[in-house]
Amino acid sequence: MMTKKDKIKQFDPNGIGDMANNIFGLPFKSDEAEVIIIPVPWEVTVSYSAGTANGPKAVYDASFQVDLYDAEIKNAWHKGIFMETISAKIQKQSNELRKKAEKYISLLETGKSYSSNKEMAAIRKEINLACEKLNAWVKEKSLLYLNQNKTVALLGGDHSTPLGLIQAIAEKNKNFGILHIDAHADLRDAYEGFEFSHASIMFNALKIKQVSKLVSVGIRDYCEAEATLISNSNGRIKTYFDRTLKNRAYKGDSWKSICIEIVNNLPEKIYLSFDIDGLDPKLCPNTGTPVAGGFEFEQALFLIETVIASGKKIIAFDINEVSPGKDEWDANVGARLLYRIANLVANQ
């Protein structure tokens, strides 16, 4: 049996992506890889366009086109990245519940309420219970690898999916912050009646006492209740709105100085949550809820590189809301983003 060292020696990083291997064509098994990716094909509560449940497979398929050479990190691929098998059971359940959620949302849009409509109440209860069970599954999977000192990354699915990973991180760390890159604040309380809505992920994350700080960057679509929650958070939530960032740049502030300021607002340990719609929608046009504005690819990565350069540590991360659409463009961007972030985090 070949060791990891043997595999590194025999593997050709300049060759064609070998689809007989794992993600990015890498030859490593889970016990040999430093970064473990948990795919979660789930999009039950999405409120606009569907498709993110197909994100993990699309990113996996697109990953074989990614060149493994990283100019900033020598032999980055040696660290090893491994993605678990996508659960057909979870994807099937997501598809079934999504149909019920669509019916529920349609009734909601016509003025019906789950408090008075028995069918809506039953759907809401079923979906909330299923999402709670999914969170428990993600948490269990995450702890399995965290207990092996692996770096765990979650690949969604919609943005509700990483809550179990954040809960697992909280069991292993007494204090950490969340760096949240997104177009949306995701601070809604049980949006549309769904406790674990994709629009409620940061609201739910803040229920975890070990989360000492939430720093959200690129936000450009949010409601008044979310703005009020931010204002009344006593500094626990720091939000860098897209409009404000761009105005600062127009007035002469460098992105480097802004990134340093963002990093200074974070504690020593950081969980990175990256919703792909934090990028300019030209890079992710098929994402569930695209919003004009956002970051360029390298601009977002420069922020993450600034975190690493500061000496602060990213202890886990997620990438969510990649929806493949009719071509591989979104998945191509998602795969390259995943590879670059995995390399940065593994090289800390």
Question: What characteristics describe this protein?
Answer:
Arginase, Chain A; 14% strand; 11 helices; globular; 8 strands; 8-stranded parallel sheet; 40% helix; alpha/beta; 348 residues
Mean pLDDT across every amino acid position: 96
Q: Could you tell me how far the N terminus lies from the C terminus, measured between alpha carbons in angstroms?
A: 30 Å
What is the helix fraction of residues, given as a range?
25-40%
Corresponding CATH architecture: 3-Layer(aba) Sandwich
CATH class: Alpha Beta
Total helical elements = 11
**Strand fraction band?**
5-15%
The SSE string, one letter per element, is: HEHEHHEHEHEHEHHEHEH
Major sheet attributes? 8 strands, parallel
- Name the CATH homologous superfamily: Ureohydrolase domain
Overall spatial form: globular
What structural class results from the helix and strand content? alpha/beta
Number of domains: 1
Give, in spatial order, the strands making up the sheet with the most strands.
Answer: 2-1-3-8-7-4-5-6
Specify Rg, calculated over alpha carbons. Answer: 20 Å
CATH fold label = Arginase, Chain A
Q: Give the low-pLDDT segments.
A: none
User: What is the number of E strands?
Assistant: 8
What report would you give on this structure?
The chain is an alpha/beta fold. The protein has a single domain (4-346), classed as 3-Layer(aba) Sandwich (Arginase, Chain A). 40% of the residues lie in helices and 14% in strands. The chain has eleven helices and eight strands. Helix 7 links the parallel strand 5 and strand 6. The protein is globular, with a radius of gyration of 20 Å. The two termini are 30 Å apart. The relative contact order is 0.16.
